[in-house]
Structure formats: structure tokens, C-alpha cells
């Protein structure tokens, strides 16, 4: 299970060597399951570019807002269709809280990613074309950008007082009514149990505090450092591994450790 931005690929979109690492894991039947802030449509596009999920894609998307899978691949009790995938919602849609969100955001000059134009999405995400458009197709997790970080921090406290869950990342404020990646991974493992035959090693890769709870859940945790070598996630467990390089090189390194059964 792997985070994407800052873990599998660089925050600037760099992905050198990742395709080859994915091919190596595929050849050994090692499943790659994204656990990400990205939308399912972003994940599907990236999977087609890098070559994972060909036999059936499973992903935790929008920071735990939903678990999505290729149609018929998992047994959801009440699935909803998002971008052609079957998904189990773990939170309520943005529509349930956006009126209050818009009211609070009036004090900031901010952009809501789900409402952003292509140009706005390209500017704040550093993505181009289709990738920027797919990032705006959010259902459960609103992503907010502003030049005034202090204002976003004030808004975050007000939103939490109203029962919303927020996460202040490096560049964006994330807002939703679900409980994050950790809860989603626990639920995904419950769904996978009937499909897993024998003992399966679950390895998690992440780079930020948004990944902390899910890295505490998996059997083996690998932390990808930041560009400056700093570790941006503090785990309570003592048995985690820190990759020697930032993304994407650190993810490629981790893939080789997994492939050669070093871990």
C-alpha cells in the first residue's frame, strides 16, 4: 500500500524509474494499492501511465474518503459509481458541507479545488492538462489553496469546531467528513480478507503526517524522506524503515527491497 505524492512520485511530478519498479513488482505478483489524497480518476490515469492495477485496481482515495475498485473486484454492500469504479463511501460528499465551507472561506482569498478552473488547477497543483482536470473531480475531500496560510489555519480551527475533519498539508488545507487513511486501510483489509489466501505481507509506504495512521496499521512501514532528507512523519512504532532517498528514488529503492525479499 502506497501514498503517491511525495512517496511514489515527487511533489514536482517526477517519476523516474517508477515504471520499471512497477513492472518488477508486477512480475512477482506484488499488488500495488494506492492510499492517496488523489481522486479515483487521477489514480486510474496514473495506473495506466505507470502500469499497475492491470488485473484489477484497488485504491483508498481522497485521504480515506472512499475505497474504490475495478467493478466486481471487491464485495461492497452498497457501492456507488465514481468514474466507472465501484466505491464504498467512508464519509459524506462535499455537498453536505460546502455551504458552510463557502461561508467561512469568504474571509480568505482561496481556491476550492473541486470548483477550480483548469487554469487554476494547473497553477496551484503544478500539473498540466488532463491530470489537472482529474484532480478537480473530488467527491469527499475538499482541497483548499490560498496564498495566506495563516488564514487557512484559522479556517481549519473553525471547521473542526463544526465537526469537520481537517488536515493542513505543505500547501493545502484538506477538509472532509471522514476519518483519514488509517480508518480506510483497516476497512480495506476487512474487505480483502476473503480474497487473501494464506498469510500476506502488507507493506505501507508514505511520507507525511497524513500517512501516519495507515503506516501504524500495516505489517511493515517504510517512510520516504523529504527532499532535504528530513523525516516528516513521526511514528509510534519503533520497527519502521526510512528509505535513503526522497521520492521517486526512495520508492524505487523500497520496491527493490520488496522484490528481492530483503524486508
Description:
The protein has 263 residues and is of the alpha+beta class. The protein has two domains: 18-91 and 180-259, Rossmann fold, CATH 3.40.50.1000; 94-176, Putative mannosyl-3-phosphoglycerate phosphatase, domain 2 (Threonyl-tRNA Synthetase, Chain A, domain 2, 2-Layer Sandwich). The protein is 32% helix and 16% strand. It is built from nine helices and eleven strands. It has helices spanning 18-27, 40-50, 98-105, 118-125, 130-135, 149-161, 181-192, 212-217, 249-259, and strands at residues 58-61, 66-69, 80-82, 85-89, 110-112, 142-146, 165-168, 173-176, 203-206, 220-223, 241-242. The protein has a four-stranded antiparallel sheet with strand order 1-2-4-3, with helices on both faces. Strand 7 (165-168) and strand 8 form a beta hairpin. Helix 1 packs parallel to helix 9 (249-259). The radius of gyration is 18 Å and the shape is globular.
How do you describe this structure in short?
The protein has 263 residues and is α+β, with helices and mostly antiparallel strands.
Which tags fit this structure?
single chain, 263 residues, alpha+beta, Rossmann fold, Threonyl-tRNA Synthetase, Chain A, domain 2, four-stranded antiparallel β-sheet, 32% helix
Amino acid at each position: 500500500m502506497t501514498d503517491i505524492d511525495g512517496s511514489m512520485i515527487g511533489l514536482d511530478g517526477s517519476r523516474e524509474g517508477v515504471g520499471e519498479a512497477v513492472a518488477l513488482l508486477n512480475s512477482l505478483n506484488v499488488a500495488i494499492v494506492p492510499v492517496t489524497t488523489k481522486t479515483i480518476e487521477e489514480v486510474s490515469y496514473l495506473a495506466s501511465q505507470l502500469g499497475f492495477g492491470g488485473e484489477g485496481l484497488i485504491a483508498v482515495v481522497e485521504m480515506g474518503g472512499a475505497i474504490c475498485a475495478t467493478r466486481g473486484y471487491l464485495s461492497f454492500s452498497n457501492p456507488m459509481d465514481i468514474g466507472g469504479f465501484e466505491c464504498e463511501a467512508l464519509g459524506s460528499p462535499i455537498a453536505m458541507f460546502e455551504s458552510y465551507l463557502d461561508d467561512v472561506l469568504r474571509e480568505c482569498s482561496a481556491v476550492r479545488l473541486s470548483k477550480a478552473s483548469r487554469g487554476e488547477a494547473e497553477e496551484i497543483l503544478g500539473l498540466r492538462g488532463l491530470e489537472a482536470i482529474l484532480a478537480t473531480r473530488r467527491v469527499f475531500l475538499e482541497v483548499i489553496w490560498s496564498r495566506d496560510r495563516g488564514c487557512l489555519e484559522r479556517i481549519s480551527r473553525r471547521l473542526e469546531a463544526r465537526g469537520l475533519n481537517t488536515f493542513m498539508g505543505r500547501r493545502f488545507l484538506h477538509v472532509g467528513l471522514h476519518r483519514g487513511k488509517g480508518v480506510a486501510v483497516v476497512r480495506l483489509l476487512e474487505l480483502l480478507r476473503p480474497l487473501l489466501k494464506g498469510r500476506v505481507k502488507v507493506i505501507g509506504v508514505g511520507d507525511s503526517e497524513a500517512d501516519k495512521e495507515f503506516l501504524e496499521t500495516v505489517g511493515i512501514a517504510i517512510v520516504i524522506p523529504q527532499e532535504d532528507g528530513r523525516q516528516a512523519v513521526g511514528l509510534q512504532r519503533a520497527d519502521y524503515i526510512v528509505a535513503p532517498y526522497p521520492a521517486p528514488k526512495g520508492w524505487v529503492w523500497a520496491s527493490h527491497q520488496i522484490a528481492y525479499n530483503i524486508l
